[in-house]
Design a protein that fits this description.
The complex is a heterodimer of chains A (290) and B (435).
Chain A lengths: L1 E3 L9 E5 L4 H12 L4 E4 L11 H8 L4 E5 L9 H18 L6 E5 L23 H16 L4 E6 L1 E3 L10 H9 L4 E4 L5 E6 H13 L2 E7 L4 E3 H12 L3 E4 L16 H6 L8 H5 L8
Parallel strand pairs in A: 2-3, 2-4, 4-5, 5-6, 6-10, 7-9, 8-12
Antiparallel strand pairs in A: 1-10, 9-11
Helix pairs in contact in A: 1-6, 2-3, 3-4, 5-7
Chain B lengths: L5 E4 L3 H12 L4 E4 L3 H8 L10 H7 L4 E4 L10 E4 L14 H11 L7 E4 L18 E4 L8 H6 L4 E5 L8 H8 L5 E5 H32 L3 H9 L20 H16 L4 H14 L1 H11 L6 E5 L14 H7 L5 E5 L13 E3 L3 H5 L4 E4 L4 H4 L3 H7 L4 E3 L7 H6 L3 E3 L5 E2 L5 E2 L4
Classes of the chains: A alpha/beta (290), B alpha/beta (435).
Chain lengths: 290, 435
């Protein structure tokens, strides 16, 4: 659950984004910049958290008035090796924050920290990850909270979509790209799995709100509306005039068939924030680029 | 044996109703409260609580009733009931300091043979721990229901009496008094009686939670809980009086208190109480049903909506706002302008920066983008749908307790939402709720 240290939103002094070159990090940087917030973005080129001297480098550039957004990750963490890499990256940040003061830390986590059967998922749902990726985020949350005395907010996005997504995971991005190439959209089986998909711009807006309120605690970055892959495919197919075709599943039916979120807590902590409906979010994609 | 004089200490909702019932059964009754202003009000017929039929019952039996702020007036009583309010904090935990202080005050002034009866909600173990001779100390379960308190006080289903020695006969004075109500008397050990009260409430909460869980499912799959509930009532294993009306979670404070007590006891004793935690989770979930609909239907789309709210009390026919779903809703609507009406509770009870207090229900609907009927006061049943539709600027009517006719509302062009059923749109369509 999220509490605000700033009842009245106040522009953060400077926001240092660790992982500013990624899909989510760059969206947060763009949002903050458009809000007039000074941003110091650190891509892997500027700061490789796995490199020697990374902690000293980070420590040297942080000021007590800074807010830090930690979004850097090797994701999705599918192997043990990737899990360990991600934990070592977090360890570097923890070592720095254990010894200096900053104003606020926001960690971009994931809804993968929750148990698969936690429907509908709320912020107070049990954290019992069933994947290495979920375990990685759950461990990083605890590492960061326990290593620093600064206020920490955990933002846990669900499946994120957006035009700039470099991944081609099963869902809106892949469907859009298939349709834009004039191909039929492929769904697995009947595509009946219902999931929540949030536009990356909305995640960025939420991060900006959390920073402005200097919030502490956890908040799910979700829309509260779960849509089947079949329906998403149809939405996109209609825009391009292509077919939706069913393909055999590559494996067994997913263990997590449907996932729903209860967004009541968000309605209370950010009452005037509302997510972009999926159809409207897809409308922000540029047809020719896709 | 002649009728004992019966005393009641603490002119609370429970105390006044119980005293009125005692007088109604022909017992001379002493009503004590340490606050002289409360006693002065009662003497002039000004009651600190609202309860249908109570003023009449007190007036009809005034020859049997003595009001006093002097504890010495209780000296004449053969039986004295402690009827203090036991306040709770935000988590439902009881503050027992007030009742302990009242017991100290009262017990010091009682006669040598007087029977002391604890009538308040106390945790198991409380009564046995009191420093008062156990042969004259009893605990009695109260089952007051706001709005039906007089009926239940005059015609109780049974008396559950906690005793130090349940195998021994009740003292004559207490037996004479309780027998006047012509219902079964069930003596049991203190702890059993104290837990019996909690058990009753847990069973009620179980029914409420089952109802709310299945009512939500009804909303999502196109079923109508109002069609299902009568079928359940005809099942003898469930019963016609079962709590099968969907609501906005638990309210009033007493049920929540008992759930918290069970959780505390379970923690102290290592009992498994996951079910009770689930009751609380479901209650919190259903509590925000109106807020979620308001966001989905109005707040996400309208930049400066006006919201009408009818009812502030936690239920109809009471002035109480303890754990009121309406006040909880209002607290989450701070960015928007509200127009509020309640027939009894003043608008000042609501913590909100932009409220217009309305003298009539229709005034609260005037120009509103959405209307939420948060307390099913009878007066709201009298709202005329067509007048409502003309008065409102928007189309959204949220009526959890089904005070209005949903079909008529939709026919008038309103989008109608009530617990346990799909919404009915002003364009005639039905829509199941989204997850």
């Amino acid at each position: 659950m999220l509490d605000h240290l700033n009842r009245i939103p106040t522009s953060p002094g400077r926001v240092v984004i660790i992982g500013a070159g990624g899909f989510v990090g760059s969206a947060i940087a763009k949002q903050l910049s458009s809000d007039g917030v000074p941003v110091h973005g650190l891509t892997r080129k500027e700061l490789d958290l796995l490199a020697d001297g990374a902690a000293d480098k980070l420590k040297a550039l942080l000021k007590p008035s800074d807010s830090v957004v930690m979004v850097s990750a090797v994701a999705p963490a599918k192997t043990v090796s990737m899990l360990i890499q991600n934990l070592r990256m977090a360890e570097t940040v923890c070592n720095v924050l254990a010894n200096i003061d900053i104003a606020h830390l926001v960690y971009i986590s994931s809804d993968a920290v929750y148990a698969d059967d936690a429907n509908p998922v709320k912020e107070e749902s049990d954290r019992a990850p069933s994947t290495l990726h979920g375990m990685m985020h759950a461990a990083r949350e605890l590492m960061l909270i326990s290593s620093t005395k600064v206020p920490v907010a955990l933002l846990r996005p669900t499946l994120i979509y957006g035009e700039a997504d470099p991944h081609n995971g099963y869902g809106p991005n892949r469907f859009w790209r298939q349709a834009a190439r004039g191909e039929a959209i492929s769904i697995f089986g009947d595509g009946e799995e219902r999931r929540d998909h949030i536009l990356v711009d909305d995640v960025a807006r939420l991060a900006a709100l959390v920073l402005a309120h200097r919030s502490v605690g956890a908040l799910n970055a979700v829309t509260g509306v779960s849509t089947s892959f079949h329906d998403i495919a149809q939405l996109i197919a209609k825009r391009f005039g292509v077919q939706v075709v069913s393909q055999p599943r590559p494996g067994p039916r997913p263990h997590l068939l449907h996932r729903f979120f209860d967004v009541t807590h968000r309605l209370k902590v950010f009452p005037t924030f509302h997510c972009t409906p999926l159809d409207q979010g897809l409308g922000l994609f540029r047809q020719e680029v896709a | 044996m002649s009728k004992p004089v019966v005393g009641f200490a603490g002119m609370t909702h429970l105390g006044i109703n119980s005293a009125a019932a005692a007088a109604g059964k022909g017992f001379d009754t002493v009503c004590f409260d340490a606050d002289p202003a409360v006693i002065a009000g009662l003497r002039t017929g000004s009651l600190p609580v609202m309860e249908g039929g109570l003023p009449e019952l007190l007036a009809q039996n005034r020859q049997h009733i003595a009001y006093s702020a002097e504890v010495k007036e209780l000296k004449q009583c053969g039986v004295v009931y402690i009827a203090a309010d036991v306040p709770t904090d935000g988590r439902g935990r009881s503050d027992l300091s007030g009742i302990r202080a009242l017991i100290d005050t009262v017990s010091a002034g009682l006669g040598r043979d007087a029977i002391l009866v604890i009538l308040c909600q106390v945790p198991p173990g409380f009564t046995r721990g009191l420093p008062w001779p156990k042969e004259r100390l009893y605990y009695q379960v109260e089952t007051l229901i706001y709005g039906r308190a007089v009926e239940r006080a005059m015609h109780p289903e049974r008396f559950i009496v906690g005793c130090a020695a349940p195998d021994r006969p009740l003292p004559q004075a207490l037996h004479t008094f309780l027998s006047a109500f012509s219902c079964p008397i069930l003596p049991m050990r203190y702890e059993s009686a104290e837990l019996a009260k909690i058990s009753i409430n847990c069973c009620l909460v179980a029914s409420v939670t089952v109802t709310n869980t299945l009512a939500e499912l009804s909303e999502r799959i196109g079923a109508d809980w109002a069609e299902i509930a009568p079928a359940l009532r005809l099942d003898k294993r469930i019963g016609q009086y079962a709590y099968l009306s969907p609501g906005l979670g638990l309210a009033g404070g007493n049920l929540e208190r008992d759930l918290e007590t069970v959780l505390q006891l379970a923690q102290e004793t290592g009992s498994e109480a996951g079910l009770v935690r689930s009751f609380l989770v479901n209650s919190r979930h259903r509590r925000d049903w109106v807020l979620r609909i308001l966001h989905d239907e109005v707040l996400a789309a309208s930049p400066k909506p006006v919201i009408g709210v009818l009812g502030l009390a936690y239920k109809e026919n009471t002035h109480s706002t303890k754990n009121s779903a309406s006040l909880d809703l209002i607290a989450e609507l701070k960015p928007w302008r509200l127009q509020i009406h309640d027939p009894v509770v003043p608008a000042s009870a609501a913590a909100h920066p932009d409220i217009k207090a309305c003298a009539a229900p229709l005034e609260a609907a005037q120009g509103a983008d959405a209307l939420a009927i948060m307390t099913p006061w009878p007066v709201y049943c009298e709202l005329r749908i067509n007048e409502l539709a003309r008065a409102m600027a928007g189309r959204t009517v949220i009526d959890p307790y089904h005070v209005l006719d949903g079909a008529a509302a939709a026919a008038a062009g309103l989008d109608y939402f009530s617990l346990g059923a799909s919404s009915v749109r002003g364009n005639g369509s039905r829509r199941t709720a989204h997850a």
